[in-house]
Amino acid sequence: xxxxxxxxxxxxxxxxxxxxxxxxxxxxxxxxxxxxxxxxxxxxxxxxxxxxxxxxxxxxxxxxxxxxxxxxxxxxxxxxxxxxxxxxxxxxxxxxxxxxxxxxxxxxxxxxxxxxxxxxxxxxxxxxxxxxxxxxxxxxxxxxxxxxxxxxxxxxxxxxxxxxxxxxxxxxxxxxxxxxxxxxxxxxxxxxxxxxxxxxxxxxxxxxxxxxxxxxxxxxxxxxxxxxxxxxxxxxxxxxxxxxxxxxx
Length: 249
Hints:
The protein is mostly helical and 249 residues long. Helix content is 70%, strand content 0%. The protein has ten helices and no strands. Helix 1 (3-37) runs antiparallel to helix 2 (43-71) and helix 2 (43-71) packs across helix 7 (163-190). The longest helix has 35 residues, at 3-37. The chain is globular, with a radius of gyration of 19 Å. The two termini are 18 Å apart.
């Protein structure tokens, strides 16, 4: 493939990725603002709330995956400032996270996945979900994050929101997304079992259908080995990357 063709493909991927990011971010913002500031509780809306929470949890996972692509420069290829701006916004909106703090940790994960140098891995319990999750949470929790969330919540309260709606439509979806990202994006791909890993990436993919893969973790779990083989491939191209890789064999 010529250099000009690669550049053209990169620009096309960038436009496509930015449109998807705008759609996910716009949907998340609509649910966030609508739920926190315009939700009216009644028997009918109480029955609808769990559905809205699950949708927002999935969209929150999407915000993190967009920021993850920004860390690899694949959301907007060749535009590092735009990647940083979008990634910073997505992580802050999702759960008050700091892009600057997460960026070096994620690259440390890729430098030595599934080893004692991997901040996402729990070498003392590589098969056990709960101890691993506890280690994962402690490694990424910061007082700064709690401070940012608290300030945002105070501003929302001053603008007329209720604490109940803030918890229901922001905190709960964010926590569900955390569980989703950990289970499908970290634990299942990198846990140890009786099967050996294929290579030094110490990562596995799964046989989930593309639609279910999208619903679980925006392809980041089911195509996790492919992600480690090609970190610069955006989340939405991972199924195609697998097909192309298999076709070359």
